[in-house]
Here is the input.
Amino acid sequence: MEEIYKRRSVRKFLDKPISDDDLDALLKAGMNAPSAHNLKPYEFVLVKDKNTLQALADTAIHSKMLNEAAAAIVVVSKGDNEQTPHWQADCAAVTENILLEAISMEIGSCWLGGYPDLEKTAKEKKVLAIPEDYQIFSVIALGYSALDLKPNDNYYPEKIHYEKY
Here is the structure.
């Protein structure tokens, strides 16, 4: 539970690399997410090159933190077909697992939207040479936080309905 409360969207990073072992641990955490019918319809593009991170940052105004990020994990899927009708849910679970593992490793992260913003993801797909029949679900900016962010305390009783709406 501690990681859940500590998880925050980090948009300002230190100039400090993330080790390959730590990046592998993040990918492994993602791959251990639940998956409908165990189809695991996801793949990853791991980005560490500063020029590529800069090009991704230039694809959308809300992606600028990629200029400072040490790395990014891009969650992609060839979903959107009858064989993988739950690919978005699977990719969301993968993304959240990565975010939670990152905070447990004291690595900051920010989930940048992807699907269904096809205009934005078309630009990202071009930068990353992702095949046309794949979708980018999310881009996860990663790095060590330059800010001391306080844990969340998000509990809203008014959003809870008991037994029936």
Summary: Strands lie at 42-47, 71-77, 108-113, 135-143. The CA atoms of residues 6 and 151 lie 4 Å apart.
